[in-house]
């Protein structure tokens, strides 16, 4: 399958957008680990319509003017990984969930580590918001873009909403006790 790519600037570093015939297949980080997202050869396509639309929507997101994305997505992974990645899309803008909560949502409460592993291989970071998944105490844990980028994205969303969500304020208060 042919994959097309375009690299864009963002406040969290350069991002490489990748599309296939079905939709957006990946958003790769500047220092992404080789093989984290398995893709074949990439064809540079700076004017690819889907990549340009994704760039526009990400620009709006980083400007605080977009809370949801509407580009077609093309997840490639195991059935379990795809279930996790689709579940990420249900986490509201500006909120977080723990790995355990995600496992329970998927109907397998004992699968929090497997959810974490699938999260780490999420090919479409930011749009499939794996940055919204945190440890059970609210602590920031692994993220392909790095913990600084994860914190930046969460802060960006909280600021766009005017601060912390009620749920996150309660979780944060519980962790400070």
Main beta-sheet annotation = 4 strands, mixed
The CATH superfamily of the largest domain is Winged helix-like DNA-binding domain superfamily/Winged helix DNA-binding domain
Total number of domains? 2
Would you tell me the structural class of the helices and strands? alpha/beta
CATH class of the largest domain: Mainly Alpha
- The helix-strand sequence is EEEEHHEHHEHH
The low-pLDDT segments are: none
How many strand units? 6
Number of helices: 6
Side-by-side strand order of the widest sheet? 3-2-1-4
CATH architectural category of the largest domain: Orthogonal Bundle
**End-to-end Cα distance:** 52 Å
Structural commentary:
The protein has 6 helices and 6 strands, in the order ββββααβααβαα. The strands form 2 sheets. Strands 3-2-1-4 form a 4-stranded mixed β-sheet, covered by helices on one side.
Descriptive tags:
Arc Repressor Mutant, subunit A, alpha/beta, single chain, two-stranded parallel ribbon, 177 residues
Structure summary:
This protein has 177 residues and is of the alpha/beta class. The protein has helices spanning 49-62, 79-88, 99-105, 112-120, 147-160, 166-176; strands at 3-8, 15-19, 24-29, 42-44, 97-98, 133-134.
Secondary structure topology:
Blueprint lengths: L2 E6 L6 E5 L4 E6 L12 E3 L4 H14 L16 H10 L8 E2 H7 L6 H9 L12 E2 L12 H14 L5 H11 L1
Parallel strand pairs: 1-4, 5-6
Antiparallel strand pairs: 1-2, 2-3
Helix pairs in contact: 3-4
